[in-house]
Design a protein that fits this description.
The chain has about 210 residues and is an alpha/beta fold. It contains four helices and 21 strands. The protein has two domains: about 100 residues, Rossmann fold (3-Layer(aba) Sandwich); about 110 residues, 3 Solenoid (UDP N-Acetylglucosamine Acyltransferase, domain 1). The chain binds coenzyme A. It comes from Mycetocola manganoxydans.
Amino acid sequence: MLTVPLVIIGAGGFGREALDVVAAMNETHRNRFEIVGVVDSAPSLVNISRLEDRGISYLGTETEWLSNGNDASFVVGVGDPIMRSTIAARWIDAGRSPVTLVHPSAIVGGMSTIGAGSVVCAGVQISTNVRLGEYVHLNPNVTVGHDSALERCVSINPGAIVSGEVQIGTGSLVGAGAVILAGLNIGRDSVVGAAACVVRDVEASTVVKGVPAR
Ligand SMILES: CC(C)(COP(=O)(O)OP(=O)(O)OC[C@H]1O[C@@H](n2cnc3c(N)ncnc32)[C@H](O)[C@@H]1OP(=O)(O)O)[C@@H](O)C(=O)NCCC(=O)NCCS
């Protein structure tokens, strides 16, 4: 199998979570990826040192990296959906290609599809006939029920449960441990608070929290 040179964008928590997914995939897929390093336009010193501790190179800012001609593929390891969308567009404009990461411990049901640039972490369960758009992030132990569709740049935080036949619009974020009941629509650019239980549709650009979520 061809080894793909890969740059992770983002030295923060999710960027390094993506490194874990790559490491696990490399164990089961015979070194599928060569991690070139991590790019971040404003990394904290503590995160640079966390990269150093695991032997990963910090490659500089996006501008520095994108001007150097290296055409390694990319994954955006940034949890914020709006920032992720902007970064992905910039790297596509610069002629770079996204890769899709799926942790080997994730379960992906029949007829389910995962868009380019998405990251599916350890312990995720994707049921049958689910559609994930581009650059979707599913954090550890997320469940996505049958026949659901998550559009571009949706983020589902750890342990959240998306029931069956749920639609989640572009750029929305579902907080850790939240539950979305079956058949509901979450409009684009919305936020569901951590531990919320969503029992009715959520309009676009709306923040809901609590049980039941309001
Ligand atoms: C709901 C949320 C989006 C609100 O963010 P915010 O607008 O910055 O809210 P604030 O922190 O200013 O809190 C505003 C009020 O909402 C309450 N609140 C915050 N988050 C809440 C939640 N998840 N459920 C219930 N109430 C919440 C606060 O206690 C505060 O109440 P008060 O006005 O009575 O003091 C955010 O708290 C959240 O839950 N985001 C998801 C984060 C997540 O999943 N993190 C895990 C990452 S791995």
